[in-house]
C-alpha cells in the first residue's frame, strides 16, 4: 500500500502542475516557487508531516518536500540560534540534497556530452 500511495500522490501533484502549466500563463519557474512555498506553509501549519508519513516518497520527492525540508531547517535553526537562524537553517537543511544534485548532474554531463542549442 505504501508504494501505491506514493505513486498516486506523486501523480496527482504532477497532474496539478501540468494543469497549471497548460491552463494558466504561469511560467515553470513560478510554479516551482509556488510548490516550494506551499510545502513550507503546509509544514508551518503542521499539515505536511502527517501527509508525508502517509504518502511517503510521493510527497517527499516533489518540490513540496523540498519546501518542507527548508521549513524544518529554518525552524530548528531559529530555535537554536535565534534570528540569525532564519538565514542559516535553509542552507543547513538542504545542503546534502542540493550538493548531490550538482554532483550527479555534472557526472551526467560528462557521460552524455551535451551540446549548446543553436
UniProtKB/TrEMBL annotation:
Superkingdom to which the source organism belongs: Bacteria
Entry keyword annotation includes Plastid: no
Record key words, sorted: Membrane, Transmembrane, Transmembrane helix
Presence of keyword Transmembrane: yes
Any Pfam family: SpoVAC_SpoVAEB
Regions that span the bilayer: 6-22, 29-48, 83-112
Cross-referenced PANTHER family: STAGE V SPORULATION PROTEIN AC-RELATED, STAGE V SPORULATION PROTEIN AEB
UniProt protein name: Stage V sporulation protein AE
Gene name of the encoded protein: spoVAE
Amino acid at each position: 500500500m505504501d508504494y501505491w500511495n506514493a505513486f498516486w500522490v506523486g501523480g496527482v501533484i504532477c497532474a496539478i502542475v501540468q494543469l497549471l502549466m497548460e491552463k494558466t500563463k504561469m511560467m515553470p519557474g513560478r510554479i516551482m516557487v509556488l510548490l516550494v512555498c506551499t510545502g513550507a506553509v503546509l509544514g508551518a501549519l503542521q499539515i505536511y508531516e502527517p501527509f508525508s508519513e502517509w504518502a511517503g516518497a510521493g510527497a517527499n520527492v516533489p518540490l513540496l518536500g523540498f519546501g518542507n525540508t527548508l521549513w524544518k531547517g529554518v525552524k530548528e535553526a531559529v530555535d537554536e540560534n535565534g534570528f540569525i537562524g532564519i538565514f542559516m537553517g535553509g542552507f543547513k537543511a538542504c545542503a546534502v540534497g542540493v550538493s548531490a544534485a550538482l554532483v550527479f548532474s555534472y557526472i551526467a554531463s560528462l557521460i552524455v556530452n551535451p551540446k549548446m542549442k543553436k
